[in-house]
């Protein structure tokens, strides 16, 4: 039997960033339990690495801006490598979608980001592969970019470890013990851990952890998404921004010698390792042919998929559980958990420390009980 002041379930971005921020706030006896042999086996190690800041939810957008600032300029000693390649991003839209691009520009201004809606010629100058694409305008955000996600994840874990946190791999949490409505221990593959504070940072499995606490899944539901590494037979600029078609929901960015692409599929999926579905490649081919015809002949070199996790209102869930004393949520980070992770970890740590804020009210799990 071991003990810890705080036990974090999961060493993805949610758990790692929270461990990091807790240790920065002086909490030392932190234990991170991760079922896999290494960190980043699931969404945190296999996402598209886009630092995308002008999100539709303005509170999440503020977290993304805070996150991108941290990633662009992390504290001294966090990493030896640059974490962010500031390539910028282009959201393209057809005529009906141009009003949305202008709304994004206003939202960016409110976030302190000087972005603009640009014309087709300007967009094509930045990404020549857009030459024959049928779009009417683009939203240009020069502050977005591509992140070294493995370095970021390892940076959190290394800093937390050097500040006293313990990280145990190959250690599955299998149950939770409550006494008088409050957390008293976790059951794990390596025995019982006594603790009065558990952080549910289990990603697609956050619903399972919630079930361990006896409160059901709380609408936690993963959705599968595919990524494709492709080989292009048109010249690809290594410094191109990532390009997202706002109406058709398909994106690409340079990666290696080719392009990383996603058809933005969002198929409900149980919390288990997903397998690649051939229908996603077909969906990608159809969307690329319509959105970016100059890239219609790309060939798929490899494909993978992983799970994005949501609750019913698609808003992050961060904060103290209203019914189970000692259970703190840092979950349901959907498609933005990497970019927002520095801020998400800050909020998770604040919740553990019993702090109150309008941000924590907004993301509170209490809303799931109505
Ligand atoms: C295809 C795709 C593309 C994406 N692209 C981007 C992007 O470009 N930019 C961006 O910001 N975000 C992106 N995301 C979202 C981002 O990857 C996620 O929001 C983020 O990684 C979620 O982190 P997490 O820690 O909550 O979950 P995970 O990374 O899944 O980590 C949870 C961990 O908990 C462990 N665990 C679960 N249950 C237990 C248990 N019982 N015991 C012990 N350990 C357990 C798991 O093994 C796992 O390692 C993308 C996601 C996907 C799927």
Describe the protein's architecture and organization:
This protein has two domains: 178 residues, FAD/NAD(P)-binding domain (3-Layer(bba) Sandwich); 144 residues, D-Amino Acid Oxidase, subunit A, domain 2 (D-Amino Acid Oxidase, Chain A, domain 2, 2-Layer Sandwich), CATH 3.30.9. Helices cover 28% and strands 28% of the residues. Helix 1 runs parallel beside helix 6, helix 1 packs across helix 9 and helix 3 packs across helix 9. The longest helix is centred in the N-terminal third of the chain and has 15 residues. Flavin-adenine dinucleotide binds next to helix 1, helix 2, strand 15 and strand 20.
Domain tally: 2
Percent helix, as a range, is 25-40%
Query: Roughly how many Å is the radius of gyration?
Result: 21 Å
Instruction: Describe the largest sheet.
Output: 9 strands, mixed
Shape: elongated
* CATH superfamily label of the largest domain: FAD/NAD(P)-binding domain
Mean pLDDT, all residues: 97
**Range of strand content:** 25-35%
CATH names the topology of the largest domain as: FAD/NAD(P)-binding domain
Characteristic key phrases:
370 residues, alpha/beta, FAD/NAD(P)-binding domain, D-Amino Acid Oxidase, Chain A, domain 2, nine-stranded mixed sheet, six-stranded mixed sheet, 28% strand, binds flavin-adenine dinucleotide
């Amino acid at each position: 039997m071991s003990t810890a002041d705080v036990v974090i379930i999961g060493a993805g971005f949610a758990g790692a960033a929270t461990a990091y921020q807790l240790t920065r706030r002086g909490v030392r006896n932190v234990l991170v339990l991760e079922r896999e042999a290494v960190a980043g086996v699931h969404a945190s190690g296999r996402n598209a690495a886009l630092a995308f800041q002008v999100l539709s939810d303005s509170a999440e957008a503020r977290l993304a801006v805070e996150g991108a600032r941290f990633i662009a300029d992390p504290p001294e000693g966090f990493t030896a490598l640059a974490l962010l390649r500031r390539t910028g991003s282009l959201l393209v839209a057809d005529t009906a979608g141009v009003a949305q691009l202008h709304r994004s520009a206003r939202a960016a201004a409110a976030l302190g980001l000087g972005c603009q809606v640009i014309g087709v010629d300007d967009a094509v100058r930045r990404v020549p592969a857009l030459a024959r694409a049928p779009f009417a305008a683009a939203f240009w955000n020069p502050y977005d970019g591509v992140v070294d996600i493995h370095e970021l994840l390892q940076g959190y874990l290394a800093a937390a470890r050097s500040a006293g946190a313990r990280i145990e791999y190959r250690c599955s949490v299998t149950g939770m013990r409550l006494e008088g409505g409050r957390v008293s221990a976790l059951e794990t593959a390596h025995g019982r851990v006594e603790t009065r504070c558990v952080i549910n940072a289990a990603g697609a499995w956050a619903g399972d952890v919630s079930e361990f606490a006896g409160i059901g899944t709380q609408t936690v539901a993963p959705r599968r998404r595919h990524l494709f590494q492709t080989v292009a037979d048109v010249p690809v600029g290594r410094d191109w921004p990532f390009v997202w078609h706002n109406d058709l929901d398909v994106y690409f960015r340079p990666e290696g010698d080719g392009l990383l692409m996603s058809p933005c599929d969002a198929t409900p999926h149980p919390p288990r390792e997903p397998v690649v579905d051939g229908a996603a490649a077909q969906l990608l081919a159809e969307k690329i042919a319509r959105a970016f015809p100059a890239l219609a002949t790309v060939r798929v070199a490899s494909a993978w998929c992983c799970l994005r996790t949501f609750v019913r209102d698609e808003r992050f869930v961060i904060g103290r559980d209203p019914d189970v004393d000692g259970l703190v949520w840092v979950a349901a980070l959907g498609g933005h958990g990497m970019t927002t992770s520095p801020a998400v970890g800050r909020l998770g740590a604040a919740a553990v420390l019993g702090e109150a804020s309008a941000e924590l009210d907004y993301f509170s799990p209490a809303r799931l009980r109505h």
